[in-house]
């Protein structure tokens, strides 16, 4: 898979390193000469250019990319890169970094964004996740399809503890995608039984989040009564 990353700062380089380790082809783009640190990510391609200019993106052959990641520290730049990648080059998957949570509402399909990643929101979500068992935590927002990646740690008193995945009547427009159990990452099937302490990751429509949280957090005695 070919991936172009606009922004070769610490965030962009870190993403590039992970993708390269997973066998992907990566191009890093940045207009600042000081950001071109080939020795830090030697296996990546590098391009000194302004990712907001069509001529630069032509040079980057963006039409050959499967994914574009707008990872600069400037939300305006990330929006422009996303829009150009989607509308001018037809890139199938566009991921954009949101630096200021106040701008998060802009990062949607109207600007070509498929997945918006808000670093401040993600950090606060991880803090919440660490201290709140039984509360639904929103991790990522997928602009296309109006869905979120959400997480909930199943509390010991939940009525669903011990229940098979296939026996649960999940809300509409929700999908259980992963169970994290200790050090294991499980792809759920209908025979798997949920256990207290499981971290459950769902893709869910925003309108279903409250219903999903109620289902997972209901206490055994409430359920029985």
Task: Give the gist of this structure.
The chain has 225 residues and is an alpha/beta fold. It is built from six helices and eleven strands.
The largest pleated sheet is described as: 11 strands, mixed
Strand content: 25-35%
Number of strands: 11
Task: Kindly report the average pLDDT value.
Answer: 87
* DSSP summary: helix tally: 6
- H and E order: EHEEHEHEEHEEEEEHH
Regarding quaternary structure, how should these chains be classified?
single chain
Output the radius of gyration: 20 Å
Q: Output the strand order for the largest sheet.
A: 3-2-1-4-5-6-7-8-11-9-10
| Helix and strand composition category | alpha/beta
| Uncertain stretches of 5 or more adjacent residues | none
Distance between the termini: 53 Å
Bulk shape: elongated
Keywords:
single chain; 26% helix; transport; 11-stranded mixed sheet; alpha/beta; 225 residues; NAD(P)-bd_dom_sf; 6 helices
What does the model show?
The protein has 225 residues and is of the alpha/beta class. Helices cover 26% and strands 26% of the residues. The chain contains 6 helices and 11 strands. Strands 3-2-1-4-5-6-7-8-11-9-10 form an 11-stranded mixed β-sheet, sandwiched between helices. A hairpin with a 4-residue loop joins strand 7 and strand 8. This is Trk system potassium uptake protein TrkA. Residues 137-218 form the RCK C-terminal domain.
